[in-house]
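Worked Example 4.2. Read the sequence first, then its structure tokens.
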Amino acid sequence: MNINRTVYREDHEMLRDTARRFFERECLPRQAEWDKAGRTDRETWLKAGREGLLCVTVPAEYGGGGGDFGHSCVLAEELHRSGVSGFSLSVHSDITAPYIVRFGTEEQKQRWLPKICRGETIMAIAMTEPGTGSDLKSIRTTAVRDGDEYIINGSKTFISNGLNCDMVLVACKTDPKAGSKGVSLIMVETNRAGFRRGRKLEKVGQPAADTTEIFFDNVRVPVDNLLGEENKGFVCLMQELAQERLIIAAYSVAKLERLLEQTIEYVKERKAFDGTVWDFQNTKFKLADIKAQTVAARTLVDYYIGEHMTRRISVQEAAIAKLFATETLWKCIDDMVQLHGGYGYMLEYPIARAFTDYRITRVFGGTSEVQRDLISRKL
């Protein structure tokens, strides 16, 4: 019943082998250390850069891998299948860096991308604010033009890579009265005066993910740090959010497949009432349902991965992929926790770790409710 995945080529699978070895060798042994520290270590970022595992879709002339979206998906799948938690590679490579590639000037690409690809500059993206979640047109962080500089004031929250980042892509208002037509994207180096990191946020899961608040108190950045055109940032965000949502869908299905394998192994070994948990009809029926849902999610998401390799995917299609994959993952995780009994609540078991780590997939990248709204607009 394994699916023949035709969406990937041989070069994709070669990268998969490299990525799998890297995550098993360099990341899993450090997981406990990362969880305790509340962040990943910078040396691992540099190692990932040397292995060619950062920014795999960035053109080779800027230091990237020169690959396509399939390479990004392979990396995301292997990272999450491995059990590594809190290493926000996708935020750096697949969500933030593509904005520079698509909307940056040649000078900006030459200035920023090589260090980003090497892991010397760690990236974050700042959209969400304390009073504004998915409604990006309502952000309040402002950037006021003052000669050859912008002066930025405001705050952002839920920033992945918030402690480690060296540069942040900031969505802000350059025309506060214009709603979505007044949003701009500005790159801000974190060593600038007035930039401040807040507390590391204590989350339900992913303790190694350095999710923080950040603040801008009269932060001055050169106008040359504007990405794309002034007041056109909302359009840029809408174009790139589809890829972010599809990446989330891709690794959600990969994680579901791995958790199903682990749960089947567990129930066949776990003794209960002179047999195993596997011997109960309820167990087999539950796992049959999960298998069917996993196959459905895999087939759907692989189709959309193929579509996005040639950038044919629409906003609504990306929303369908994220909604179905993340909602299916969460329902199945809950069922698999139940099949583990009390051990399903113990963090030493992968299913319990997934229970805390992956609830967020229905929230970030746009909540499930936002995805439903996007889909309904084309009904």
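Now turn to a second chain, presented in exactly the same format:
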Amino acid sequence: MYRKQQFVFRKDQIHKATIRNYTTSDFNGLIEIQKRAFPPPFPPELWWNKEQLASHIDNFPLGALCVEIDGRIAGSMTGLIVAFDPAYPHHTWDEITDEGYIRNHSGLGNTLYVVDLCIDPDFRGFKLGKELMNAMYEIVVHLQLDRLLGGGRIPTYHKFSEHLTIDEYVYKLTSGEYKDPVITFLLQCGRTPLKAVNGYLDDKESCNYGLLMEWKNPFI
């Protein structure tokens, strides 16, 4: 199991944070964070439910992470292991995550796949998302997997889709000409674009695209 303690900073604030695997006693707190992070009009049926969270810790407890500050759950990140071939990258979020239940987790796979990353708005600014991502990288190395992979929303793309293809827009994001709150954050975490997948998720802002971004295990 995973457990790490460290200090986190936001301007002149400093707090001790614990990154650990979440358990059944954390479920209510994790669901409340989803509600605060994704308020209406975000569809409530897309928040985590207890059945999904229970499936996470039943199928791959090591990949079910949360961060706790001063005894309060401040965010979570969930992953599963899949067999991924970069030559055949197309998939949807629903397909590869089993609609968030991860019952398709395979210990024989080669890739740690990100299901979700969520930070409580009260704790934004502590860079907890990046710390959880680093924890997932450590799990990749520990399990000797090839990569961490996940599909990121591109919420600014709809503003430019009439005159830029998705590949052109991704190039502008990676060159620093434009910024996107999701993709730029993932770039800052060390992830690199692999493929923009049409139909990855139902998201008007992203024009239904998801950008697959990976972090390769530097020891393989």
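Notes for the reader: Helices lie at 27-37, 50-59, 93-97, 128-142, 166-174, 183-188. The mean pLDDT is 96.
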